[in-house]
Design a protein that fits this description.
alpha+beta; Endonuclease, Chain A; eight-stranded mixed sheet
Length: 261
């Protein structure tokens, strides 16, 4: 039955051609052999047309597969931030890149300051690599201020353009970053009741949505780059003692001095 459905046109054409050839042979001087040759010719032409139609459908399917391949959509899910960082580094490879980084979640899962950790190494690469154009947006507080100042110092020492902005927010907005407007890297918020997920998303629509969010946040944030702005932030951190403020103040002077080199 499947064979008949698949070759319906060819079978009907063959039967009609043979019957037609026999009828013509009965009323004319054309031989049966000549009629059979004529019928076979018709069959071949019809089969070609039928097969060409199937071939055209296959070509369309190939085109759709190619289009899907050119616009891939995938989610890589990891339970470790360092494994995720290694994959991000591998995906980036060498060359020039643009990174838009949002870090508004004031809590992180670990306070371990191991410079050999892949995530720390990746952040240092974002900050100091001259081939990476970085826009870093964060909610500055007494816990992360020293880290941001060190990032700024590394950027200025590397004589590269990195831009840091502050967004005043008490809401733990999603932390994410976008690479080359192609990859979206996002994680679950810090909460002991939530399972850890670090995702690399490659999807045009999702990246576009988060890129729009980034641009809106960046537009409404305050660029922090001068000594006055940095010390103004420090003066509002009342949970720091005088020694801590003194150390941060020296670091601010160090950042500003590096900008004059």
């Amino acid at each position: 039955m499947k064979f008949f459905k698949k070759h319906f046109v060819a079978i009907i054409t063959l039967v009609a051609s043979i019957i037609g050839g026999i009828v013509v042979n009965c009323v004319s001087s054309i031989t049966l052999f000549e009629n059979l040759l004529f019928s076979i010719l018709i069959l071949l032409v019809t089969t070609f047309i039928f097969d060409f139609d199937k071939m055209f459908d296959k070509i369309q399917e190939k085109q759709e597969d190619f289009a899907l391949h050119m616009n891939p959509s995938s989610i890589r899910d990891y339970q470790s931030v360092d494994v995720c960082a290694k994959m991000v580094d591998a995906l980036m490879g060498g060359g020039k890149h643009k990174v838009d980084f949002v870090s508004l979640d004031t809590q992180i899962r670990t306070q371990v300051k191991d410079t050999r950790r892949p995530m720390v190494e990746l952040l240092n690469k974002f900050v100091s690599d001259k081939n990476i154009q970085l826009r870093y947006l964060t909610a500055i507080n007494s816990k992360n201020f020293t880290t941001i100042l060190n990032f700024m110092y590394m950027s200025k020492c590397a004589k590269r353009d990195s831009y840091y902005a502050m967004c005043d927010s008490n809401v733990p907005f999603a932390s994410f970053y976008i690479i080359d407007k192609k990859y979206l890297v996002i994680r679950t918020p810090y909460d002991t009741s939530i399972e850890k997920h670090y995702c690399i998303i490659e999807d045009v629509t999702m990246v576009l949505l988060f890129q729009c969010w980034f641009e809106m946040l960046w537009k409404n944030a305050e660029i922090i780059d001068t000594q006055r702005e940095l010390k103004s932030l420090l003066s509002g951190m009342n949970d720091l003692d005088e020694n801590e403020k003194g150390d941060i103040c020296k670091l601010i002077d160090k950042v500003v001095a590096s900008d004059r080199r």
